[in-house]
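Below sits the subject:

***
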Amino acid sequence: MAILHKRNIQSVFIEGGSTLLLSFLAANIWDEARRIKSDLILGDGVPSPKIDGEYHHQLEVGNDRIEFYRNI
């Protein structure tokens, strides 16, 4: 994180599997999270991680819903 700050990088987009996402949530090094919910069924799938943040708003895109959360 210090290297990113030194390079004046103020925003990082993390898109990954549950292990990567859970590591950022557990370390509490996030400002905003977005969860995409869809009617599309992808087999058994993996449950999305619990986001201990403040629900902010949602955006409907086609049949999908994007939920926005802020770290409080």
